[in-house]
Structure formats: structure tokens, C-alpha cells
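Lecture notes, part 5. Sequence design as translation. It can be helpful to think of inverse folding as translation between two languages: the language of shapes and the language of residues. The source text, in C-alpha cells, appears below.
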């Protein structure tokens, strides 16, 4: 972190500033402010799309500012219409609270809650929203919003253009989010709210509410919504969203997601999703131009982001699992690891009895799995050094595969050539 820089210039060069209320660049340079970013609790995990605001909070904290992660225990019971084509399914309060507890653990990977000077905090807007009196809220807060003003916001306008429209419940979301900003301003001295660009209308509405009620200035800063260079949605794979919770997306699959980044996207991702300094990113960009086949930028990206989200131990296992695909050792891998690593390769189910006693001849195993068409082809492949069992080269034509070769008594991994894998599942 360059001492001549400030938080705003840091966010700017990383491409994290989409729009902002005038003056916040000066305040972030000259003051140490309290700020917040809200997070929905509609699932028990955040996903990679949430990492931009999370890492922005972390960057601002590193510059001495005071970050608050606001869990939407109250607003999640309503549902934010921003960016949604239809109304969300309403969740129970118990489910939302359980989701928040799960998300708190993920936040701890990004924010420092123990530093003495400016510790991060987690607050829950259910603590004040659920205590609101409807009539008082409409009198004291609702009167500051005209229907014309609310209809002009993109989050509302877009939904009104659709056949299903928008319910009064979701229409009221802007008032509640604005009230959050006012409450945090009055009780926690918060002057800045951040979020994705789809939150611009809600954030500026809150800043205006603060000005009308208190006469004070409040600010907003929004980040761009990340898209891939090919136009497809960021953070999605064929199997669905890429989550931060390891039970939803394993560290191995998480690592693979970043490792598979396109050359056109990877430098942008290095700026957005890592703490690497500008010089290091420029060096990786040069490496990408000069030796794209080595994929150094993608490897560094996957390593940095996985370490942030899952820690060094999980990163080591993810790297080991990745090396397996290139012939690395299978030692120490669990059956779950094997299932994940080879989830997309052909597989064959065989009975365990065929591997007992004297074992199953390797020639028969290769034919039965369809890796070769005949024993003759199997012999030639072995003699040419092209067959591997559990990533160990097979050198003996007479070799028999026994139960002692099974990984956790359940799996065998066959490989023909460099990348032609086959998973044998034993029942």
C-alpha cells in the first residue's frame, strides 16, 4: 500500500468505482470515516459476486476507515427488488437468523474484527427495523419520499415494465434501506454507504433522507457489477453459483473456478479480487502477454483468492488436488476429494469381489472399462508407457489390481496418456 495513496485512489485504479456522491473522494483522503455495506441473508452463504463489496470494505479498513457489515435480518424479510425480475420467496425469521450466523463466519475471512484502532463490526438491521411502529414510520420517514421519486428509480422502473409488476412489500424496500442509513448515521456516525451499482437508487435515497432530517451530508459509492468478457454472468458455472461456503462449493472447485479464468478477464480479476500491489499485477499482465501458455496470472489469482476465502490449509489441498489432474500423487486424498476431482470423467462401477483373492488383471480392467478396445491394444499401451494406475505408471503386463490398490477401499483412477482419465467405482 503506497503511503501517498488513499482509499479512493486505491479503489479507482482497481476498477472498483462505478459512481459516487461528489465529495467522498476528498473525505476518504482527509478523514477516517465510518461506513457500511449491507448483505442479504436470503441464503446461508455469500457467493463470489459478493466479494467485490467485501474486499472493498477490507481495503477501506486497511486505510484506517471503520467498516460495518450490515446483515439484513430485517430487510431480508421483505426482499430487495434491485436486479430481480420477479419477487423473491419470503423466508421465515428463523431461517434468516440461521443464514446470518453462517455468513458471519465468511465475513471473518475478509474483515479484521480484532484490530484495536478500527475493528470491523457486524450489525443486524433486524435490531431496529423489527421494532418500528408502522404509523410513526410512515409519518416520520415515508413523508420524505414522493411516489414520483421512487418510481423513477431503476430498481422499481424495471419491475413496473414487467407483467407481474412489483408488490407494495418490495416497493417499500427503498424506505427501509434509507432508514438503515439514517439509523447508522445517527447512532454509529456512519457517513458512507457502499454497494453494487444496482443499489445506487437506494443509497442516494438514504443520503437524501439524512440530509432532510439531520441537515448533515452523507455519501454513497457503488461498485460495478462484474461481467465476463464473453458476456456471460460472472460467478456462474454449469453446476450453479460459486459460493464462499465450503460445504456448497468445495475449495478445490473454488480454486478451479479462478484457475479457469479467461485471459481477457484475469488481469481485471487480479485487481478486483486480490490484495496484490499494482506492480505485481503489471508483472503478471506482462507474463500473460509474453507466455500465455504458462497461465501464471491464473495460477496466482486462484492461489490468492482461495487463500483469502478458505485459508492456507484448504489452499494446499486444492493445489494438490489440481496437481492430480496432471499426474500428481493421490496420497492423502479422501474419497470425497476423488469424487470431486474426477466428477466429470467417465466412470465404471465394478464389484469388489473381482479384485479379491489374486486380483483383476490390468489388461482385463482396461478392456472392461472401455479405455481400450482389446487386450492387444492394452499391451501396446502399457509397453509404450501410456497407462497409469492411481497416477503410477504400469510397467508389468501381468500386473493384477487388488483390493489393496483401492483408494479408501472404493476407487481406482486409470489414466491413458496425459489426460485421458477413467474412474473405477467399487461397490
Amino acid at each position: 500500500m503506497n503511503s501517498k495513496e488513499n482509499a479512493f485512489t486505491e479503489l479507482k485504479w482497481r476498477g472498483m468505482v462505478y459512481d459516487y456522491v461528489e465529495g467522498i473522494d476528498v473525505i476518504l483522503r482527509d478523514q477516517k470515516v465510518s461506513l457500511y455495506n449491507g448483505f442479504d441473508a436470503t441464503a446461508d452463504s455469500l457467493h463470489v459476486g459478493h466479494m467485490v463489496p467485501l474486499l472493498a470494505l477490507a481495503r477501506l479498513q486497511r486505510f484506517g476507515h471503520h467498516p460495518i457489515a450490515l446483515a439484513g435480518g430485517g430487510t431480508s424479510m421483505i426482499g430487495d427488488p434491485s436486479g430481480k425480475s420477479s419477487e423473491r420467496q419470503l423466508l421465515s425469521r428463523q431461517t434468516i437468523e440461521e443464514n446470518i450466523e453462517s455468513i458471519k463466519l465468511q465475513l471473518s475471512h475478509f474483515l479484521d474484527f480484532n484490530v484495536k484502532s478500527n475493528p470491523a463490526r457486524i450489525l443486524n438491521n433486524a435490531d431496529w427495523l423489527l421494532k418500528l411502529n408502522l404509523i410513526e414510520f410512515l409519518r416520520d420517514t415515508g413523508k420524505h419520499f414522493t411516489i414520483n421519486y421512487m418510481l423513477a428509480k431503476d430498481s422499481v422502473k424495471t419491475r413496473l415494465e414487467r407483467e407481474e409488476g412489483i408488490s407494495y412489500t418490495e416497493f417499500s424496500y427503498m424506505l427501509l434501506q434509507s432508514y438503515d442509513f439514517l439509523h447508522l448515521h445517527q447512532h454509529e456516525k456512519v457517513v458512507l454507504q457502499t454497494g453494487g451499482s444496482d443499489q445506487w437508487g437506494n443509497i442516494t435515497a438514504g443520503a437524501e433522507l439524512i440530509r432532510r432530517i439531520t441537515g448533515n451530508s452523507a455519501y454513497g459509492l457503488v461498485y460495478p457489477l462484474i461481467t465476463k468478457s464473453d458476456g456471460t454472468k460472472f460467478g456462474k458455472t454449469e453446476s450453479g453459483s460459486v459460493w464462499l461456503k465450503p460445504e456448497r462449493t468445495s475449495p478445490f472447485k473454488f480454486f478451479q473456478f479462478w484457475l479457469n479464468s479467461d485471459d481477457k478477464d484475469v488481469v481485471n480479476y487480479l485487481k478486483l479480487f486480490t490484495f496484490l500491489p499494482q506492480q505485481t499485477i503489471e508483472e503478471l499482465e506482462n507474463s500473460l502477454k509474453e507466455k500465455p501458455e504458462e497461465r501464471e496470472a491464473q495460477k496466482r489469482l486462484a492461489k490468492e483468492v482461495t487463500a483469502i476465502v478458505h485459508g492456507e490449509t484448504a489452499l494446499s489441498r486444492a493445489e494438490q488436488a489440481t496437481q492430480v489432474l496432471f499426474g500428481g500423487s493421490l496420497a492423502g486424498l479422501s474419497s470425497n476429494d476423488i469424487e470431486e476431482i474426477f466428477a466429470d470423467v467417465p466412470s465404471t462401477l465394478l464389484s469388489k469381489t473381482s479384485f479379491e483373492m489374486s486380483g483383476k488383471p490390468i489388461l482385463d480392467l482396461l478392456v472392461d472399462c472401455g479405455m481400450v478396445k482389446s487386450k492387444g491394444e492394452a499391451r501396446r499401451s502399457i509397453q509404450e508407457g501410456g497407462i497409469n494406475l492411481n497416477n503410477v505408471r504400469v510397467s508389468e503386463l501381468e500386473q493384477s489390481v487388488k483390493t489393496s490398490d483401492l483408494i479408501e477401499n472404493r476407487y481406482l483412477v486409470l489414466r491413458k496418456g496425459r489426460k485421458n482419465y477413467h474412474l473405477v467405482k467399487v461397490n
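The translated text above is only one of many valid answers, since several sequences can fold into similar shapes. The longest strand covers residues 190-196.
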